[in-house]
Amino acid sequence: MFFPKLRRHAKWVFVFLALAFGVGFVVFGIGASGSGASLGDLLRDQGGNNDSSISVSDAREKVEKNPKDAEAQRQLATALQQDGKQDEAITALNRYLQLRAKDEDALRELAGLYLTRATDLQRKAQEAQLRAGYLTAGSTFRQPLDVGGDATALQDPIETAISTSANAAVSEAYTASQGAFKQAETTYERLVKVTPNDPNVQLELAQTAQQGGDYAKAVTAYEKFLELAPDDPSAPIVKQQIKQLKAAQTTTASG
Length: 255
Fold this sequence. Notes:
CATH class: Mainly Alpha
CATH architecture: Alpha Horseshoe
Number of domains: 1
Shape: flat
Oligomer: single chain
Low-confidence stretches: 1-51
Distance between the termini: 36 Å
CATH superfamily: Tetratricopeptide repeat domain
Order of helices and strands: HHHHHHEEHHHH
CATH topology: Serine Threonine Protein Phosphatase 5, Tetratricopeptide repeat
Mean pLDDT: 78
Number of strands: 2
């Protein structure tokens, strides 16, 4: 394997390297997009506080009594995650980080929740795209609609409405997923300020930016990773990704 042995927070490095080098390189037409576990599944397995000693209702009660109790906000975020309420957990973690802005684990956890949201939204976009294709598949074989005389309508207005609605659903889910990737990227940028010399954080930022389509930011973070850890076992692959990302940028600019 390409992955370095456990260093600090290496479980997150594994997730993001697995994403980029094994699963997520559809942007370059490399690798397979369908591998057993999704990114969201990996993040749910890897991230989060495993303290199950408090329920959501008890945690909410503690927060209501003292909204500025950082530990209460943290416990609420954990309880909400364990209860499958990821969006509410994001809100609670953000409130916690307003009180404890430099908590590295909480920042990583928040980024992981945003990435889980992003991949869920990507899945919804893919499902909406498949549905759109299914609903409009008949148009390929259907004869033009006869509207009288020698005139024909090239497309059934009902079919047009269905297609428009389906495409809007695809666009909405895709836009939302890109927004979640951007929120994760911003969270990692906050973490970089807290731990500027941690190469793993740079690597996590690079993978997140890449998945969100911010290739310039990804290249910068990859290069910073190489500066901080030039002898890391993953360095050759990181260099390859930089090369491919720069090529993608050039292609986009010339297109």
